[in-house]
Amino acid sequence: MSQSLVHVILAGISAGMFIWLVASGLTLVFGVLRVLNFAHGSFYMLGAYVCYTVLKAMGGNFWLGLLLGPLIVALVGYAMERFLLRYVYHLELAYQLLLTFAMVLIFDDAVKMIWGAGSTSSPAVPGLSGSVSILDRRFPVYNLFIIAVGPLVALGLYALLEKTWWGRIIRAASSDREMASAIGVKVPTLYTAVFMFGAWLSAMGGALAVPYVGLLTTGMGETIIIEAFVVVVIGGLGSLKGAFLGSLVIGLLSSFGTRYIPMLDMFLTFILMAVVLLWRPQGFFAEGS
Amino acid sequence: MNRYWTCFLSAAGLAVLIAIGLFAGPFILYLGMRVMILAIFALGYNLLLGRTGLLSFGHAAFYATGAYGLALTSIHLNPHPLLGIFLGVVAAALLALIIGFFCVRHTEIYFAMLTLAFGMMVFSLMWNVRSVTGGDDGLYGITRTAISLGFFKIPIVKQYQYYFVVLFFFILSIFLTYRIYKSPFGLVLAGIRENHVRTEFAGLAVKRYRLGAFVVSGAFAGLAGALAVMLDSNITPFAAHWSHSSVPVLVSLIGGLQTFAGPLAGSIVFLVLREVVQRFTDNWMFWFGILLLAIIMGFRGGIVGSTADLFKKYSRV
């Protein structure tokens, strides 16, 4: 393999890992609540901005921002589920989607009001700045860190869902919410918890993106939510394994697309999404139907 | 509301629109044209969302196709406005036929996602095929040449002159969509929304009706795009972006999904409110989001639906 090929692959994987952090929460929330959340990308954006603010306030400590930022965003998620979403579960799909879309508008402008409309630049992370040499070319250490974080989050989610009591309840509610409710699961509380967890995951992605993207913009949520939609559709709505593999595919596809066929960069992603929807609407990586 | 009220309101509305065209200043003229163009877009769109119950996130692609169709016709072929509008609408309807053919196989969330994917494909093509579409700069310098009708020519270059062209197509669109609503085809669409299984059992090819609604709404989107490009004299690929697809959804929702007049009222409120709020704050989307939340949480009939309910309550007492 030539050195540039290796670098294109590494760049694709690290880009895919950010999409994975957003897509994992998106698909988890869809699996349990049956709501496709447009505002999930806004949690990513909020995560980045809040992390940045905490980091500035705490004298440039990135890790503190990473810890506190997503927690604060999870509280925003709590408010959104508890006071808005909860009242539209029984309505048609259009109203649910539009409610989350209204939240996108509100979050976007709220960020503009609080942090200003311009881009915000972000500092380097001590210990993870700089780059290493891979096949005689420099590759940022931070991107390697991200490549490690993605699978760790995947493992953590797997352990949570498959090995713990909480995970069993989440799986039960996602396969049959009436039955889960009948055997004593407090479904409304569970919904709130899952939504907060999803918001936390997405905000985590946003916070991790602070040193990666260099510049924070209000458009970053809208860009990633569409990519996450594509990933979740390719992987199968509600499937975490599918979302992980789908993120890798989309990350690599856009990385290769940008490098070799810039003409068809976005086009490839969306044609893949359409083909999967038409051919295997249950998702490419989902077992059975 | 009874028939007399409807007739009276329509006549009053038409009188106001003509008066605006004759006497209003440039700003009101421009706003009036924007409202009518958006209303054409939303009227066609609500045939799909309100009438058939399908939520599309890709209709901006048809709007942009109509716009690029007119722009390309005007630049390369012939600057006759009617030819441009005709070709723009035909191109949009053809694209809607192709995309719709694939999309109507699914409903609900999968339909929304499919239309999103196809819409973004069109967006990325318009963005990338620079030699034809001008890339991110788009196409500009589209002029409004006089409409030549053989014996005489109608000049449309001035704002108030073009206003009456838009008004003509606006009234035509209302007439056509109204006829579609009241036609057997329109009633079948409502049947599909209420219960597509029963409609299928009644022996109707549900997918074909869905496709029909998709193509008709795509054609109206194309008409709106073609009229808009002549108003602005330029077009960029962002007209095809998914965020633009959300506009007719929001307009229909504000006005009222289940009513015919909903998209009309919604277009007025959407644009006028935007103008007003923008005077006070740059963050008009924030307040718009709050308004949407209020509608979704409390007034799902939209403006027209809620007013009609009030009217009924009042007249019963």
Describe the structure in brief:
The complex is a heterodimer of chains A (289) and B (317). In chain A, 74% of the residues lie in helices and 4% in strands.
- List unreliable stretches of 5+ residues of chain A: none
Q: Measured on Cα atoms, how large is the radius of gyration of chain B? A: 19 Å
Task: Determine Rg of chain A (CA atoms, Å).
Answer: 19 Å
Global outline of chain A: globular
**Class derived from helix and strand content of chain A:** mainly alpha
Strand content of chain A: under 5%
Number of strands of chain A: 4
Q: What is the N-to-C succession of helices and strands of chain B?
A: HHHHHHEEEHHHHEHHHH
Strand count, sense and barrel status of the largest sheet of chain A are:
2 strands, antiparallel
Percent of sequence in beta strands of chain B: under 5%
By secondary-structure content and strand pairing, the structural class of chain B works out as: mainly alpha
How many β strands of chain B by DSSP? 4
Side by side, the strands of the main sheet of chain A go 1-4
Q: Compute the separation of the termini of chain B in Å.
A: 15 Å
Mean pLDDT of chain A, rounded to whole units?
A: 83
Classify the oligomer: heterodimer
Task: Write the element-wise H/E pattern of chain A from the N-terminal end onward.
Answer: HHHHEEEHHHHEHHH
Instruction: Provide the low-confidence segments of chain B as ranges.
Output: none
Largest interface summary: A-B, 43 and 43 residues
Shape of chain B: globular
> What share of the residues of chain B lie within helices?
over 70%
